[in-house]
Design brief:
The radius of gyration is 16 Å and the shape is globular. The protein is built from no helices and 12 strands. It has strands at residues 14-17, 21-24, 28-40, 46-54, 57-58, 64-68, 77-89, 95-101, 106-108, 114-115, 118-119, 125-131.
């Protein structure tokens, strides 16, 4: 499972529990958007697969496969993957983001804040859950 190490303190109607469960507190329809930053330290391109699980069960037709480029010019291959999905939740439902890779050289990557140029930290995973 994709680990969720922190949550926006201004979240309204959605909580994160057990380090990887997204729990809407109100039943209804939600749009779930996921952005994942990947890095590959190998000289060959490799795949990463992401999918959703609701209440511990894989959500049908929710898998996406992306190929993370190989190292080049002395730098790791990098890729940002984005997907969103509309789901209906009942009280007690939770959502998880599952993932697998074809080679362990592919990892989720958080990029530290920069100084030249100046920019904020870039987390490895950003998830937005909005009731619609």
């Amino acid at each position: 499972m994709v680990s969720l190490n922190s949550a926006d303190p201004d979240n309204d109607g959605v909580t994160v529990t057990a380090g990887n469960k997204i729990v809407p507190t109100t039943p209804g329809n939600y749009n779930v958007s996921v952005s994942v930053q990947l890095t590959n330290t190998d000289s060959q391109a490799h795949d990463a697969i992401f999918w959703f699980r609701r209440n511990g069960t894989d959500v049908a037709d929710s898998a996406s496969v992306v190929t993370v480029p190989s190292t080049h010019g002395g730098r790791n291959g990098q890729l940002i993957f984005y997907v969103d999905l509309a789901l209906r939740f009942q009280i007690g439902d939770y959502l998880q983001i599952a993932w697998a890779v074809t080679n362990t050289a592919v990892k989720l990557e958080t990029i530290a804040a920069g100084t030249t140029p100046v920019y904020p930290r870039s987390p490895s995973v950003i998830i937005t859950v909005v009731q619609v």
